[in-house]
What does this fold into?
Amino acid sequence: MKPLIVTGSSTDPYYNLAIEETLLRSSEGRRILYLWQNDRTVVIGRHQDAASECNLTAMEEDGIRLARRLSGGGAVYHDMGNMNFTFIAPRSLLSTDEDFEIISEAVGRLGIKTCRTGNNDLGIAETGAKFSGSAFYQSGPDNDSPCYHHGTVICLCDIEKMVKYLTPSAEKLSKHGVKSVRARVANIGKGIDEVRNAVISVFEERFGEAQRAGEEICDMKAVEEAYARLSSHDWLFSI
It folds into this structure.
């Protein structure tokens, strides 16, 4: 079966996360790349407390949405200068190291040398500043269980807004040897379209020509059910 590449058209975080979950649940052993964008959203990890990780008051005043994903990891800020990627495959096929290589090679083709800055992060080699963070989710216990590895590529994000809405602890920042979010992250300075096209090119070179599709390939009833859960107050504020 050909791999599948799905390019999202929505910027609604609950819809995009519902599409991601539906692709995962219905993947049936297929390798999938899902590329998507959220506008003006803070996304927290599955086990995080929203009030501890972000400035909810500022977010409400500015119309910034809060979303919670299935995977663990830290809080991230998304806007239209940020591209999100999701690699989906059975556990036996999915390699986070290979996924990192795809993102690194794609960004490298745009003239930016990269480095690993942690277990789940990629940085700009020249400065060490993080431009990509990621997390992992496994839907079941065995090697046939579908999994995903998803993350961000910070292209032209509004870093000042990111600083305003994210409130990581001083202890967390000190683990990375920095004093602020601003000091830790950086844009790669490339447009979303060119980054997306580079990632698609490297993905197909690795795994073969892919079927291209939009969200319509998904079971929309399953998407609606996931949307209702992922946008609910209980999901967003209960851990």
